[in-house]
Structure formats: structure tokens, C-alpha cells
Write a structure and sequence with these properties.
globular; 8-stranded mixed β-sheet; alpha/beta; 230 residues; 8 strands
Length: 230
């Protein structure tokens, strides 16, 4: 896999688990608020991690770490991701996958083979504003819809999440998302934070009061809605 980032330990990325995080390079989307632009629009190929070195590290940390988070970029772009996850599972680790939902067939294959234990899928915005939010004109949301359906009907733990940006999201947009993912187990609202590594500048978070209002509007749509990043 093309790995351009590696965090050796985290207690934040995998809910209730101590894990490490692997960052794959490359993404098919161009979300203006992406906080990992260095993994999307200006990949530094001089910064890379050998897959075998990471697996050797994981072997040494058996019994200390619970899981491995695979994020990006978009991990499902990696042609050998199944092979890498299989090797990780052989070492006894739980695997959390972050995805933008654009590759439902690959997602389903991993779930069917029980290679992923937790999925976090980004819902970028309401259907009508998806193309604007992902930075791609005439974006086809049908793969997103398929991935949502897969997760809503699978036995694997999952969450949906949306990064809330003042310039892109309204309360009405979040209500529309709630209807779209109705019945979802977990939906997280994440207030935008400027990482300093964005695709576009001059973006901002919403006020806390608006974030709480968005959360309240989701009552009856999802089983559990929580706010992150405040």
C-alpha cells in the first residue's frame, strides 16, 4: 500500500480502543475543507512507510495495541488493501476503516470477508449539495447511496460522520442527511477545525449553538447522534 503517514498510538481514532493509525495517500475527492491535503493534492512521495516495517511494528505491539485504523486520503483506492488488512488480522488486531463511501463493492467485499471490525463513513453533505461539497462538478452520488445501504444493513459496527463547515452546511442540510441515513446506529457531527493543511482557505466552524441545534433536529432519524470537536 502507499502509506504516507503512521501514528504509532492513538486513543482517539478507534472508539474505546488503543490503536495505531495508518494514513494512505491519494483520494478521488477534493473537499475544500479536507484536513489532510498533503495526502490528496500535494503528496510528498519522499515521505513514505514500508508496509513490512509497519507489520513488524504491529507484531511487536501485540497485546499492547487493540486495533489498527486505516484512513487517508481514501484507503479503498489502494489495490492491495485486502492483502494488507488480512496480514493485520492474522496478527490478532481489530481493524477500523475510514472511507468516503465511493467504493461500495470493495467495502462490501471486506465486510463479507470479516476483515473490518468498524467502519467510519463520511457523509459530506445533503444529496443536493454533495457535488459542491466534494469539489467535483456533476458528482455521481449513487456509490455513496450504495455504501450507506450496505452499512445500514450489515452486522459490522459502523458510524456515519459529517464535518460541519459554516460555508457548506445549514441546519436544513443536516436534517436532510438525517432522513437519508434514517435508522443509522451512530451519527457524529464534527465541527470544522483548521489543521493548517487544507485544500482551500477562509473556511470556518459554526457556532456551538448551531451545532447543538443540528443535533436536536436529528432526533427520531438516527439511534444515536453525538458531537465531536467542541
Amino acid at each position: 500500500m502507499k502509506i504516507n503517514g503512521f501514528q504509532k498510538m492513538t486513543v482517539l481514532d478507534y472508539p474505546t480502543k488503543v490503536a495505531c493509525t495508518i494514513f494512505t495517500a491519494g483520494c478521488n475527492l477534493r473537499c475544500p475543507f479536507c484536513h489532510n491535503a498533503s495526502l490528496v493534492t500535494h503528496i510528498d512521495n519522499s515521505v513514505s512507510f514500508d508496509e513490512n516495517e509497519i507489520l513488524a511494528y504491529l507484531k511487536k505491539r501485540t497485546g499492547i495495541l487493540d486495533g489498527v485504523c486505516i484512513t487517508g486520503g481514501e484507503p479503498l483506492l489502494q489495490p492491495d488493501i485486502e492483502n494488507f488488512i488480512s496480514k493485520t488480522k492474522e496478527l490478532g488486531y481489530l481493524v477500523k476503516l475510514d472511507t468516503n463511501g465511493c467504493y461500495p463493492d470493495t467495502l462490501k467485499n471486506l465486510l463479507d470477508k470479516k476483515l473490518v471490525d468498524y467502519v467510519a463513513m463520511d457523509i459530506k453533505n445533503s444529496k443536493d449539495k454533495y457535488a459542491l461539497t466534494v469539489g467535483i462538478e456533476n458528482f455521481d452520488i449513487s456509490p455513496i447511496e450504495k455504501s450507506i445501504d450496505i452499512l445500514l444493513n450489515c452486522d459490522t459496527d459502523y458510524e456515519f460522520r459529517t464535518t460541519i463547515v459554516k460555508q457548506f452546511h445549514t441546519v436544513e442540510d443536516i436534517q436532510d442527511i438525517g432522513v437519508w441515513i434514517k435508522g443509522a446506529k451512530n451519527y457524529f457531527l464534527q465541527n470544522f477545525v483548521d489543521s493548517g493543511d487544507l485544500i482551500c482557505s477562509d473556511l470556518s466552524a459554526v457556532e456551538k449553538a448551531e451545532l447543538y441545534n443540528m443535533q436536536q433536529k436529528l432526533n427520531g432519524c438516527v439511534q444515536n447522534c453525538e458531537i465531536r470537536g467542541i
